[in-house]
Amino acid sequence: MRYPVVTLSSPAAQQPDWPDPAMAAAVVTELAGLPPLVFAGECDQLRERLAAVSRGEAFVLQGGDCAETFAGANADAVRAKLQTILQMAVVLTYGASVPVVKIGRLAGQFAKPRSRPTEIRDGVELPAYRGDAINGFDFTPQARAHDPARMLRAYHCAAVTLNLCRAFTTGGYADLHQVHAWNRDFVRNSPSGQRYERLAGEIDRALSFMRACGAESDELRSVEFYSSHEALLLPYEQALTRIDSRTGLAYDVSAHFLWIGERTRALEGAHVEFAASIRNPIGVKIGPEATADEVRALIRRLNPDREPGRLTLITRLGADAIRTLLPPLIKAVQEEDSPVAWICDPMHGNTFEAPSGHKTRRLADVLDEVQGFFEVHRSAGTHPGGIHIEFTGDNVTECVGGSHEINPADLHQRYETACDPRLNRGQALDLAFTVAESYRTLPG
User: Fold this and answer.
1) What whole-number percentage of the chain has pLDDT above 70?
2) pLDDT tens profile 325-345
3) CATH 3.20.20.70 describes domain 21-440
4) Alpha helices by DSSP H, 175-226
5) What is the distance, to the nearest Å, from the Cα of residue 337 to the centroid of all Cα atoms in its chain?
6) How far apart are CA 428 and CA 437, in angstroms?
């Protein structure tokens, strides 16, 4: 296979400083010869699902770890995250009566952008942790050195994770008759878990009715599930970009859905150039500094043919700003007359430091930003198309609040994230119920 399929001429931000460029080149060449992690036809199917979202006919649930770790590529961790997505999707589908497009923030989220290239602790300065695909989390010179061989391990961990996801979602675990089984752990006795259990009982009765009528469908026994990550580490993404034999077009087969982050969405940058060159559905994070003109320019560059399902705008504006900053962005997109799916990332604009020094988020702020997202779209007559969140299936104590409340003094108990604070499963269910209630109040 010819490599690279996609060549880039623009400057690339947030890239590693490989100490041995020859070794990095050899790793990329090896990656380019490995099998695809996803297939072009699956990407096309997701683009069709996102087209329905842009028309107001479906809702996106996208979530997973802030930063995946190699250690997390195991059956228990993947199953716990999948449980969370399945439970949230059930709440949204049943509570809001809307089809839910399920996209995991997994099987590739191994690289992270950083505000500063280095980190200082007790007078010692080392390279910042940039995700397991680049360097290690431990604060030692050996761990923090940029190592291109980690890209190969990232590929293999992504393959393991996707294999597990496919097994769980098609092998019976995602069967809708299993709604109670997804709730048999720490979350069951929480207020949100008890609320979910009541909803699961209603679903049981509905399924029994369908069975009695002879109307059960095979679609209840498996789910469509798609993978996504930030397309940050360009050598990795370029190495996994292939020409589809059906169409002769380029697809990044590292994931179904790729997004460009807030720090790398420069119109003349390499990340936008790369995204424009592939056929996958693409997302762009839109932060509080984004202007209407910038959003228009990104739309023209990334979706010049105005193709439904091609482009998703993921707003990360903050609870205190979304009601002010989102309306002019929506107006700009309306004036551009190009179909987009709007998704709310209520996590990244609501981070603060607790007195203990832990970086955290208040669930109340997360919920408030989601409510603001719905309010603005309701006022504009546009469709609030989904949520993009950072969560884990474990009983962590990283975000404060929730129906089973975590206080700032509790953060130290199970603060396990490799980067940003995540919702635990009970908090994620709290969010799902709030979103379902907000969706039910939409006009029409």
Assistant:
1) 100
2) 999 999 999 999 999 999 999
3) yes
4) 191-212
5) 26
6) 14
